[in-house]
Design brief:
Two copies of one chain form a homodimer. The first copy, chain A, has 227 residues and is of the alpha/beta class. The first copy, chain A, has helices spanning 44-51, 74-84, 100-110, 115-128, 144-156, 174-189, 201-206, and strands at residues 2-13, 16-28, 33-37, 59-64, 67-68, 85-88, 162-166, 193-197, 209-214, 217-223. In chain A, strand 4 (59-64) and strand 5 form a beta hairpin. Chain A is globular and about 45 Å long. Chain A starts with a strand and ends with a strand. The structure holds adenosine-5'-triphosphate (2 copies) and magnesium ion (MG) (2 copies).
């Protein structure tokens, strides 16, 4: 489903070069479940931003369902992002002037889902993530973990083909964290390709395949024995 | 050092009341080391905001070093905040137009520390937290964990009497996380009163005293046996 070939991304800051991605190769089959781990600054979020079409590499190839992403214009990238990709951001990026319900429902509005169906699907997710009583609250009225769960709901509501989650449980207690992982794994069980960046080794181990990054490179890629 | 008596904070949203803090009592001795744990939305950040003078309760008392905080004007609160309290925010709150060095140095500028001494102290902390090569970078050029470490450096640089850390390792790999905890515990060893909100039970257990919150209440307060 995904092929990354010699992907490079270098930031030039002052006199220095930061190799955020350094000749990275990766192949991901549809329906795969991968965790991405590694030290702070190793390039995990940068990798996810490339996969999510939020950023473009300096060189190398990204083929998604056999289509070459570098050949696409901004219009087409946005189309693919809106229809095929769900993203849980490390910093949430909720829209302040929309409440929880409106934030979660936004992807459905962007893909033309009618109001009644939107309401049902948003209600279901609010319930599942323990957010029902906060549906009308705005991000600044929510706790850190509540905001994180709104970001997760927004990412999954369209059941995207590819789901990218950047530290989805960093601000969640073990109970909410287990709920979220349960939800993500259930979606993967239905065929959604799932990548989870995490610093929590316990979470990372649950993935069928585990990637480790360091200094912009993939230094290990292992499959769980029992899967 | 700190006495909280029947502290209450209620948010009124739409028709509902959210009891973020519900008649909370707490006493903290100078030099104590406490962790604060509990489900998402239980009031941990709200408690820290009260202690950090970032927010005022609806009722109840907060005495810091025997001084009644509710009797103070905004000027005096700001004075105490700037001189006595260090805060690591759950959402970092770095200043975008300042680079890492400038963000960290800000509290020293606010308390009149001369430039040469500032430089030395900031360099030390950058080094300690693995940020030296990022000193000139702005928050948007930093990874999630790098931003978190800048927020931590800024909170500790003045060696405040009271250090409040809200999820200080949520976006850090185990190595950086251990570095941070080591630093916070070292400061506590020097007499700084330390409160750490965390979702990580392993981190919470390290504190000499562990508080658990639920629905705005303190439901348990235990001391480690071996301390
Ligand atoms: N400014 C606000 N306006 C309205 N409600 C608020 C506001 N700030 C917090 N709340 C509510 O108060 C409750 C406690 O919030 P708080 O941020 O203290 O929780 P928390 O324990 O830190 O949660 P987390 O672990 O998710 O960070 C939450 O239910 C939240 O929705
Ligand atoms: N916009 C940018 N401009 C300059 N440098 C950047 C930018 N974004 C990221 N970097 C640098 O690229 C490197 C990789 O960043 P990235 O955010 O991918 O790390 P990460 O593995 O997600 O880290 P963390 O675990 O701390 O979230 C970091 O050293 C960072 O400083
Ligand atoms: Mg990151
Ligand atoms: Mg909080």
């Amino acid at each position: 489903m995904i092929v990354l070939e010699q992907l490079c991304k270098t930031y030039h800051l002052g006199g220095e070069s930061v190799h955020a991605l350094d000749h990275l190769d990766l192949q991901i089959a549809a329906g795969d479940y991968l965790s991405v781990m590694g030290p702070s600054g190793s390039g995990k979020s940068t990798l996810l931003n490339m996969l999510g079409l939020l950023d473009t590499p300096d060189s190398g190839h990204y083929r998604l369902e056999q289509q070459e992403m570098s050949a696409l214009g901004e219009e087409q990238r946005a189309q693919i992002r809106n229809h095929k990709i769900g993203f849980v951001f490390q910093a949430y990026h909720l829209i302040d002037r929309l409440n929880a319900r409106e934030n979660i429902e936004l992807p459905l509005i962007l893909t033309g889902v009618p109001p009644r169906e939107r309401r049902t699907r948003v209600d279901e997710l609010l319930e599942r993530l323990g957010l029902s009583r906060h549906a009308a609250h705005h991000p600044h009225q929510l706790s850190g973990g509540q905001r994180q769960r709104v970001a997760i709901a927004r990412a999954v509501i369209r059941r995207p083909a590819l789901l990218l989650a950047d530290e989805p449980t960093g601000n969640l207690d073990s109970h909410s964290g287990a709920e979220v992982i349960g939800l993500l794994e259930e979606l993967n069980g239905e065929g959604i390709t799932l990548l989870v960046v995490t610093h929590d080794p316990a979470m990372g181990k649950r993935a069928r395949r585990q990637l480790w990054m360091q200094d912009g490179q993939l230094i290990s890629d292992t499959r769980n024995r029992d899967s």
